[in-house]
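Project standup — Tuesday

K.O.: blocked on the structure for the chain from last sprint. Re-posting the sequence here as requested.
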Amino acid sequence: DTRDALYQHGLPDAHGAVRLAAARALHRLGDPSWSGVIAGDSADAQRLGRSAHPAAASVLLRLMDSAARAGPAAVADGSSAVLSVEAVRALGDLPDAAGETLGTLTALASGAADLTMRTAALATVARLHPNDRAARAVVRRAMDDESADIRAAAAAAAASLADPATLRPLTLQLADRSE
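H.V.: unblocked you, prediction finished:
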């Protein structure tokens, strides 16, 4: 079905012109709800995160994947990596997205090659899944990462979790530094 193809492949495309064309086509097909959200620019992910559209989380997850797979050479302005990170951050603005995002976010927080992506995923997984055991475990492991940026992101995520078991390594690290 044409609408499904536009939802599944057009709206989450790494190329802004494709996203915009999909939103316009959906409008002509009777679904104008994407017109105010998708403009085909680098702020699409942020607007999706603020939207109340029930499919926003699904589109953001696909957009993140599409942008990551496209690579900087595929997008004229080289912004696919930024778009992918913005999609991860925007997921944190969708509290209803928690059920769809845990596996993707924990995988990114644990092993994304891009440090900016990992820090964004750590913050988002802590925000959306504060009571989830897997999310807390990812944050705890990240506190021992070789990258200072990842350790700092993990510390911030741990603080937002307010979980004693997750905070314990952080307090021990801080105590070690003060001695």
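K.O.: great, moving the ticket to review. The mean pLDDT is 84. Residues 140 and 165 are 9 Å apart (CA to CA).
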